[in-house]
Design goal:
mainly alpha; 12 helices; globular; disordered C terminus
Length: about 350
């Protein structure tokens, strides 16, 4: 019972991170399961089976709020499912001793990527065109394979790639990636079922992760309003890096004072990344405050065009019965346009 409670807390923590970042449910839960001593293939299989329930709930919620681009889902989900099935088959075919360093290396890389990703603002190319299959299909294939072999990675690989492209709204990026992950998790689970059999799934672990994730889903929606995603991403990235560095050092037989030096260097890099994330967050907030101040200081709109010296001001023509009054262009149009440009630059 104590172990199941711990696993439920793992699922809860992973869902809190995923709800705040739009990624890292599998990444966080797989890292914590490996740290608890669960075999790599069993950890990835159990996480993906639990994700079928959590991603279904997330996908329905995003759909109800209009956060899903179904064209993107259709183009990325199928290649993602193929990659996830292949990755699950590959991970099931290698021994636990060989899989542990492989999985730890993938998780370490993704954790380092989170550190870099959230230590600086994301620049998006707003002028780009629509996403095409020649971009989405390879992305889904790679993200699905990494997700199954690493126990997580669909969100950390797919979400930033779509955000950087600048061709979708952030909310639709997160909604579409979360919705398509349902198909990816199902394909990975089928691959693990074929490769490991039903005994490869730790059903109590799956149930505990699922219960914790479902409990955390509404809390995560509240948490994202309180904790800045940029700061949370840098913190979680450091935890993942340090945790999996331990596995890599043990697999490499590194001893003596070398692990201590490595941990000190990684810890220092973690603190630097968090400091950069805080600085970027403050710069963003200051820029937004400037935008708000500019909007508050904007002069009230005046009807009609300002009169020039020597000109008379004609009153607006009243609408005739049955006619719709025509809007009058004001100075507010230019003011609002400039404010929108400044706000877009801040968000970028």
């Amino acid at each position: 019972m104590r172990k199941l409670l711990v696993l439920a807390l793992v699922g809860l923590a992973a869902q809190l991170v995923d709800g705040a970042l739009g990624m890292a449910y599998g990444l966080t839960s797989s890292t914590l399961l490996l740290f608890a001593g669960v075999a790599p293939a069993a950890a990835s299989a159990s996480v993906h089976l639990a994700e079928i329930g959590t991603t279904l709930a997330a996908g329905v919620s995003h759909w109800r709020f209009g956060n899903v681009d179904w064209k993107v889902v259709g183009r990325i989900a199928l290649p993602g499912a193929i990659g996830a099935f292949a990755g699950a088959t590959f991970l099931s075919s290698i021994s636990t001793e060989a899989a542990a360093p492989w999985m730890a290396a993938i998780l370490f890389t993704l954790g380092a990527y989170l550190l870099v990703r959230f230590s600086r603002p994301l620049r998006a190319n707003r002028a780009a065109g629509r996403l095409r299959s020649r971009f989405l299909a390879p992305l889904g294939l790679v993200a699905g394979f990494v997700d199954a072999t690493g126990g997580g990675g669909w969100g950390p690989v797919a979400t930033p790639a779509l955000l950087v492209s600048g061709r979708m709204e952030p909310r639709k990026v997160i909604g579409s990636v979360d919705t398509s992950e349902f198909v990816v998790a199902g394909a990975a689970s089928i691959g693990f079922l074929i490769g490991l059999g039903s005994e490869g799934f730790l059903l109590p672990t799956v149930a505990a992760l699922l219960v914790g994730g479902l409990i955390a889903a509404p809390i995560a929606a509240w948490l994202v309003r309180i904790v800045p995603a940029q700061l949370l991403g840098a913190v979680i990235g450091g935890v993942i890096v340090l945790t999996n560095a331990r596995t890599l050092l043990s697999a490499g037989g590194v001893g003596g004072s070398v692990p201590v030096v490595v941990y000190v260097l990684l810890g220092t890099a973690w603190l630097v990344a968090v400091g950069l994330a805080v600085r970027a967050l403050r710069r963003t907030r200051r820029a937004r405050a400037t935008v708000d101040a500019a909007l508050a200081a904007a002069p009230p709109a005046e009807a009609g065009k300002p009169a020039q010296p020597g000109e008379s001001v004609e009153p607006a023509e009243a609408a005739q019965p049955g006619q719709v009054p025509q809007p009058v262009a004001t100075a507010e149009t230019t003011e609002a346009a400039e404010s929108r440009k400044l706000a877009a630059a801040v968000e970028g």
